[in-house]
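Homework-ish question, so no full write-ups if that breaks the rules, but can someone show me the predicted structure for this set?
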Amino acid sequence: MTYPVSQAARLDLSSDVVTLTRALCDIPSVSGDERVIADAVEAALRECPHLEVLRDGDAMIARTHLGRSERVVIAGHLDTVPIAANLPTWVEGQGDDAVIYGRGTADMKAGVAVQLRLAATVVEPVRDVTYVFYDAEEVEASRNGLARLGRTHPDWLVGDFAVLMEPSVARVEGGCQGTIRVEVEATGVAAHSARSWTGRNAIHAIEPVLAVLTGYTPREVDVEGLVYREGMNAVGIRGGIAGNVIPDRCVVTVNYRFAPDRSLAEAEAHLRELFAGYQVTVTDGSPAARPGLDRPAAVRFVTAVGGTPGPKYGWTDVALFSELGVPAVNYGPGDPSFAHKDDEHCPASQIVSCEQSLLRWLTTE
Amino acid sequence: MTYPVSQAARLDLSSDVVTLTRALCDIPSVSGDERVIADAVEAALRECPHLEVLRDGDAMIARTHLGRSERVVIAGHLDTVPIAANLPTWVEGQGDDAVIYGRGTADMKAGVAVQLRLAATVVEPVRDVTYVFYDAEEVEASRNGLARLGRTHPDWLVGDFAVLMEPSVARVEGGCQGTIRVEVEATGVAAHSARSWTGRNAIHAIEPVLAVLTGYTPREVDVEGLVYREGMNAVGIRGGIAGNVIPDRCVVTVNYRFAPDRSLAEAEAHLRELFAGYQVTVTDGSPAARPGLDRPAAVRFVTAVGGTPGPKYGWTDVALFSELGVPAVNYGPGDPSFAHKDDEHCPASQIVSCEQSLLRWLTTE
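A: Not a homework solution, just the prediction itself:
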């Protein structure tokens, strides 16, 4: 299934936020094909004389320079996962019950629409704002546009606080879990299974590893008032040579999702301690991010948008802001459990209320 | 690596058994390509007026009709596993220490050479003899030439006792283990590993299966004076969908090698009892064969060839004879642990002593 990529597109930032969401979704921008949408976003932002616009590849920032005592960052990615015959967008329901369906509606062009509306309409925010739009969030970390800006233009991302407009059902989600994957390997001695006592079975030797996992009690950790629930799971297992051979190797892939009170190194050390005696190889990992909700800038944000903050269980780019020293939260319209699904959708009312909440935040001391 | 297949070949049954072994090996006959060697064997046998020769595809029998009170079967397969740059044969060492190297020397053309020498030279054996030569022993059971004869010409295989000339270091090996393979499956509920508590991990659920295997004490069973040592082993394990997904399925393949006091059905029942609560699917199985060494014909054989019989741990075609109601043993030159290896070989002295032992048996009341 391919979807024709638009050659040029125009965005009208004076349209309402729901219409703007649909216009953004209807410009296909699967990771790697963000050029058209990035051009359209840049062109629209450059029509706003109160903003400085800077671009790097298909990522860009737009920022105010009002000399406020505080600078906040509002960030969103322009790319989506592949289209699944779910474009152009369509609407189901009416009025307050209207729901926008289609690729990108939840993850995360509704959030981008809110960013663009705020950028265009809040000419004199009470805190200076840097709007960040970036490419390639939905693919491998090495291509991530926000990470690239962090390497090439770290000064563009400076701020006292950041909001990442990932879908969170318009609830403030603080920090994020870390994730690390290791391969735990048991070795043995191959032999013909008719004379199994001449070998040593590596699959049998992996049993204590599974016993550790089944007996493991995941921590529930309070970090700055948010309770993170960890997870320690086998996500893969493989072993065996042939139906008549005692296997000499068995590998379990373990994924540990850890709370922000642990560093990536501490998570690795925990795994090595759990599986002492086995060969443990780290295959990948990403650090957790602390919620940072105790910072004054965060307190002001939570007060302005309302609701009770919760922990983020998945891994998001708030961790990248965290590495840059900018406390960040997830806050955006849409339910993340429908992201990447064929029936991806977002209630229109959530998009509107997100815009109103952020407008309140940017215009209230 | 391919090896040119001979277009025609001639065998001289008056040559010594070691020379005949090399001549047989030097006619390549990888399973499926037995035509040339079968033609050569048939032609050589048809020169013996005391034998009736009957052929089916690339399998054949040659038998005496002397009206003896006992008929014995001496069987061997003509095919080999693929050649590994180990033909034509070569000799290392001299005199009593000479060793013949090359594909088929152990498994089992030395045995076939002994059969052919006996067929040609023992014109008036004290017991009637049926010599069986067959194809496709080294591949899937459905192609096995002996099994085919059992289906199409069961009368050709009738006898009071059978000797299968598989390599056994010239020691009588009685009966054979049975083998059965099952897949033991655990199921779960898939979920994102960042919210693992919303799923149920199938790899974790397989842990009790591995615990059963590691805690299992294999039986050592005395069957008619031979001690069979069983084996219960995982020979494969697989599970996992992706690095961030709680797996909903995990499958362990278990191979049970069982002593001849159990039928295939009893072996299956034992596995189902061991892994109660899991889905158990039989993927394949072959029954064991009792040694049959208590039969008068077997006693006479063991007395004639000498040595102490032992159990056969692998599965061989003696089980096919057993199904036909013919007690059978393995007895042949060559060490089975070198079968299928690149350095396959057979001591010349073993071939000579096997020929002498069987000659004694066929010529002594």
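Now go work out the reasoning yourself. Hint: Chain B has a mean pLDDT of 94.
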